[in-house]
């Protein structure tokens, strides 16, 4: 099999510049103009006519593809009436439209693969033609929740439906563009034999709806941060624009202009990126942030035939390590910000290549561990279908040949710019305690009001938890966001003072953040007072997170020392638990028990705090898939709130399973 990308000659002197790489200096417009290949001269995937490449795919993978593509041949294509698009504006639902739109795209992608794997099947090629035509006939490729007209943003009059004369360039549009571009690259010649108009229309629609609006308009906040926070949208959309440009844009002038604009857009993203490589959107979004950034650089360097040392840059290398830093084990990850505690969309093949290109074997080992014994390219049923990532993995010989590996599981990862610490009892094992804690601020991407929160896992099972985020609706990204329970301080492991949690905004942040470690202890300290509104009356709230590696007393300590300008009316500590919580007779102790395995023993000062346990019922599938029908909240309430005070919560492994009441 051939590699997914022609590998350029590396620079003999990898960049060691501090800060972010200056991509506009490494890949200036003059270099782009001189080296940008003409259309048809470069592709990351072989065409269907390259029978040696496609016949080299394993029989099991081939059979899965052909069965999936054949299963829908006789079914009508999913319908997308205007009323489905209008649901978002009317009642906030975004999935009634997105689900059939995604089903259309998955069906086309599977038909493309099936055509290349079974070129004698006219039915699969007709399926491709039908899919291309259906997508080209859609009024818009934008997702309802992102359309400027539906949102009434960027000077548009608010309406129910998208305006095809002024398309919005979002993730939906770019994903459709790259799907059509890969369709062109893989089976374009076969489509020409049916009718050349299909391919011509495909290219025209990609250019009209995506490439030219990107080049000619300046109202894309995700490009430069002018109207929206720079986050995963920037590298995600750019990774798809690069491929769409390389594979479908026929004008050499436009090709060069789009690529040079993308280089500047990526530099904007890197300039805003923390130097520690952290992703304040959390590990769920890293796969469309850091991973998409790598795909951008991989495509760019392959197109231009030089990597200019970019993969040796410290920031690019640091970004690759984030999935390792936030991995708990057994499918669980540290899920600060939006995202589930059990991530689903993890493109392990991309991470494997990222580790190879940055010469970090532990990164590639993590990718191999994520894959396990699963198919190297095709996701399991129900998972996301991404033709770009599937085709890359199919023709990555190193990835196909790579065997399983254990997770590296570093003993600690400290991200000083992102202000996140993840530390475990011992390196290379899921056994024992793990502590994840954060400082940060309340204007992070996909923010929750959670400065000073923490997660505790035992034997790779989170038990003091971050609940995550529910199914996205209109309210999720609106002024109503912080009325959603899972975004609030009250449902994170942070203090509540005078009945007040933390507000959103960049000024509400941790101060005096510092990390300390020695052979037996990891410690993170921060002052949370500035994360609360003035009405809370806090002058200080020093929180100390400590993991103690003691063979006779392995434990985590959460120390709080506070001061108030006046005696508070109320003061509470909230702990969200992902297991059953049993309060001990006599007070001051509780056990958090998972469905199987060891639990946690919690201890606190019962003279200072009373304790109660509340059940939080869950009905949203985004929560129940991870936690089941309920989680629990342990509330410690100060008996006599004092102007000054100190307290330490201790967390230890419970050597045995216990009943709910002791």
Automatic annotation (TrEMBL):
InterPro entries: Chondroitin_lyas (IPR008929), Hepar_II_III_C (IPR012480). Residues 437-600 form the Heparinase II/III-like C-terminal domain. It is found in: Cell envelope. Coiled coil: none annotated. Residues 1-20 are annotated as: Disordered. Residues 1-15 have a biased composition (Pro residues). Gene3D superfamilies: 2.70.98.70, Chondroitin AC/alginate lyase. Pfam families: Hepar_II_III_C. Transmembrane segments: none annotated. This is Heparinase II/III family protein. The lineage of its organism: Bacteria, Bacillati, Actinomycetota, Actinomycetes, Kitasatosporales.
């Amino acid at each position: 099999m051939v590699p997914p990308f022609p590998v350029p000659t590396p620079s003999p002197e990898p960049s060691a510049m501090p800060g972010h790489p200056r991509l506009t200096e490494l890949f200036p417009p003059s270099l782009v103009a001189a080296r940008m290949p003409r259309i048809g001269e470069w592709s990351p995937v072989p065409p269907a006519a390259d029978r040696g490449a496609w016949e080299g795919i394993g029989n099991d993978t081939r059979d899965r593809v052909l069965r999936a593509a054949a299963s829908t041949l006789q079914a009508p294509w999913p319908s997308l009436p205007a009323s489905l698009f209008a649901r978002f504006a009317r009642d906030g639902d975004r999935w009634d439209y997105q689900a059939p739109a995604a089903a259309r795209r998955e069906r086309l992608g599977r038909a493309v693969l099936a055509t290349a794997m079974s070129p004698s099947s006219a039915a699969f090629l007709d399926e491709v033609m039908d899919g291309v035509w259906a997508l080209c006939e859609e009024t818009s490729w934008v997702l309802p929740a992102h359309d400027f007209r539906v949102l009434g943003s960027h000077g548009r009059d608010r309406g129910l439906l998208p305006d095809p004369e002024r398309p919005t360039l979002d993730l939906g549009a770019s994903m459709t563009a790259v799907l059509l571009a890969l369709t062109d690259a893989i089976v374009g010649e076969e489509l020409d034999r049916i009718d050349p108009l299909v391919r011509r229309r495909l290219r025209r629609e990609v250019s009209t709806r995506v490439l030219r609006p990107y080049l000619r308009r300046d109202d894309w906040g995700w490009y430069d941060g002018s109207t929206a926070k720079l986050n995963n949208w920037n590298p995600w959309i750019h990774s798809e624009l690069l491929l769409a440009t390389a594979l479908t844009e026929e004008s050499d002038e436009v090709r060069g202009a789009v690529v040079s604009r993308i280089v500047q857009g990526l530099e904007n993203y890197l300039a805003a990126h923390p130097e520690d490589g952290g992703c304040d959107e959390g590990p769920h979004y890293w796969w469309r942030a850091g991973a998409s950034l790598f795909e951008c650089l991989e495509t760019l360097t392959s197109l231009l035939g030089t990597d200019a040392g970019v993969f040796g840059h410290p920031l690019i290398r640091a970004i690759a390590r984030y999935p390792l830093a936030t991995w708990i084990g057994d499918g669980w990850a540290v899920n600060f910000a939006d995202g589930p505690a059990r991530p689903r969309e993890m493109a392990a093949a991309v991470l494997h290549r990222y580790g190879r290109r940055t010469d970090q074997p532990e990164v590639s080992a993590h990718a191999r561990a994520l894959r396990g014994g699963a198919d190297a390219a095709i996701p399991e049923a129900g998972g996301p279908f991404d033709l770009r990532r599937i085709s890359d993995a199919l023709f990555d010989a190193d990835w196909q040949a790579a065997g399983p590996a254990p997770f590296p599981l570093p003993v600690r990862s400290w991200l000083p710019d992102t202000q996140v610490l993840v530390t475990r009892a011992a390196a290379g094992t899921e056994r024992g305690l793990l502590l994840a804690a954060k400082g940060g601020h309340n204007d992070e991407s996909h923010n929750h009001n959670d400065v000073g929160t923490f997660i505790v896992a035992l034997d790779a099972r989170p038990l003091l938890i971050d609940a995550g985020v529910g199914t996205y609706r209109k309210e999720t990204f609106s002024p109503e966001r912080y009325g959603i329970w899972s975004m609030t301080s009250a449902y994170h492991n942070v203090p509540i003072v005078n009945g007040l949690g933390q507000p959103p905004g960049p000024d509400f942040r941790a101060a005096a953040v510092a990390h300390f470690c020695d052979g037996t202890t990891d410690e993170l300290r921060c002052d949370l007072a500035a994360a609360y509104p003035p009405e809370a009356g806090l002058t200080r709230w020093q929180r100390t997170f400590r993991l103690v590696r003691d063979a006779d007393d392995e434990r985590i300590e959460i120390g709080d020392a506070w001061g108030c300008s006046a005696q508070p009316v109320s003061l509470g500590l909230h702990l969200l638990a992902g297991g059953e919580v049993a309060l001990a007779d006599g007070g001051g102790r509780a056990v958090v028990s998972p469905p199987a395995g060891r639990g946690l023993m919690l201890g606190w000062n019962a003279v200072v705090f009373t304790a109660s346990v509340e059940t939080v019922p869950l009905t949203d599938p985004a929560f129940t898939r991870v936690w089941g029908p309920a989680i629990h909240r342990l509330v410690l309430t100060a008996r006599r709130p004092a102007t000054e005070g100190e307290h330490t919560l201790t967390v230890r492994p419970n050597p045995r399973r216990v009943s709910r009441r002791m």
